[in-house]
Amino acid sequence: MLIAVDHVQLAAPPGSEDLLRAYYIGVLGMTETPKPPSLAARGGCWFEAGDVRLHLGIERDFRPARKAHPGLRVTGIDAFAARPAAHGAPVAWDGLLPGYRRFHSEDPVGNRLEFLEPV
């Protein structure tokens, strides 16, 4: 029986950890979680905010996820959308999901992210 999503893994190119930290910590307000020593040598970063956990793993032949994405629920979506926009990330509003306000954006390596708030 499934009970929860533990984390979502996204890929990132080698050497992008500082860009990822600047975005996921500085823009989205997440906290970096240390990776276990047995996994740290692989590179990448783990981030969390409350029950939300995102793992960014290094992939040599990296291609950003353009369609696949995590859907991240937020509060105060207008103020939240201003954060990535202020750092040059795209903010594309989409009114197609009944019962929600939402927008899509990208992290600094091009992965698609969805942010949504129930109305």
Automatic annotation (TrEMBL):
<dbReference type="InterPro" id="IPR029068">
    <property type="entry name" value="Glyas_Bleomycin-R_OHBP_Dase"/>
</dbReference>
<protein>
    <submittedName>
        <fullName>Glyoxalase</fullName>
    </submittedName>
</protein>
<dbReference type="InterPro" id="IPR037523">
    <property type="entry name" value="VOC_core"/>
</dbReference>
<feature type="domain" description="VOC">
    <location>
        <begin position="4"/>
        <end position="118"/>
    </location>
</feature>
